Amino acid sequence: MKNKKIKVLLSAPRGFCAGVERAIEIVEKSIQKYGAPVYVRHEIVHNKYVVDDLKNKGAIFVEELEEIDDKTRPVIFSAHGVPKKIPNDAKNYKMSYIDATCPLVSKVHREAENLSKAGYHIVLIGHQNHPEVIGTMGQLPLNSIDLIQNEDEAKKYSNKNNKKIAFVTQTTLSIDDTKDIIKILKERFPDIKEPLKEDICYATTNRQMAVKKIAKNCDMFFVIGSRNSSNSVRLVEVAKKSGCVNALLVHSQSEIPYEQIKNSNTIGISSGASAPEILVKNFINELKKRFTISIDEVETIKEDVVFKIPKKLN
Known about the structure:
The chain is α/β, with parallel strands linked by helices. It folds into 3 domains: about 5-15 and about 200-300, 4-hydroxy-3-methylbut-2-enyl diphosphate reductase, catalytic domain (Cobalt-precorrin-4 Transmethylase, domain 1), CATH 3.40.1010; about 20-100, Rossmann fold (3-Layer(aba) Sandwich); about 105-200, 4-hydroxy-3-methylbut-2-enyl diphosphate reductase, catalytic domain (Cobalt-precorrin-4 Transmethylase, domain 1, 3-Layer(aba) Sandwich), CATH 3.40.1010.20. It is about 40% helix and about 20% strand. The protein has 11 helices and 12 strands. It has helices at about 20-35, 50-55, 85-90, 105-115, 130-135, 150-155, 175-190, 200-215, 230-240, 260, 275-290; strands at about 5-10, 40, 60, 75, 95-100, 120-125, 145-150, 165-170, 220-225, 245-250, 265-270, 290-300. A 5-stranded parallel sheet has the order 10-9-11-1-12, with helices on both faces. A 4-stranded parallel sheet has the order 3-2-4-5. Strands 7-6-8 form a 3-stranded parallel sheet. It is flat.
């Protein structure tokens, strides 16, 4: 089997985005500054490898603040953002907190708040129960924001209180799917106000464009990432839509489908914005044990975005 030659098209950019790098750095710097343990509310980013690594360094992950036994320890809010209530709860508990919300998510929070204050009713395009959606909806008073998840919901949506309406979106969605939902909303509500600058983040867009470029030339496509990582799951969908029906998510419990790979001549590989590069390397090394691999990295755009960490950690 070893002499079976397989060409790997390696998608670039892939993996960590600036928001994820910043969030991980915030946890590591907090441990250095305050000692262990520091608490993190919700997985800092959606990746088991990253979370386990930070646990080993002294981070304790909780879902809610009340689970924290020692309230004198600092708590970090995840990159996905939190509802307004959470920092307020932390203040009531007299806890010190560090917010690792991605600046691009914070931008959507501010946008939604400003539009709401200007008298708009907000429509959020996103996925129910995703922490980013919970965080964005939690910036506004109850009943002043509605969630639309798909084209069907966009077709049925009714502007109940007859206020002016505006939309914002989750940052990790598929550009194409969102475009279709927005088109329906604009047709139905010609005056709907849209964001000045698109909400879907640069890294989501870049990774999707890179996958689009190579998927059609692949017999199989693999996205390294977690099942609860919205942007990773979207990359699998993009690969399928772009012409590689046999696209799969490779997560921590995945078995590598060697038999299917054996019947392929060209495979594509990318990774979600919260997946570390070591997981891509490990995957390729597993393939090298069984096949003769040639790697061609296909780069669509260079990324040079960096987000600063909070001053108090410098």
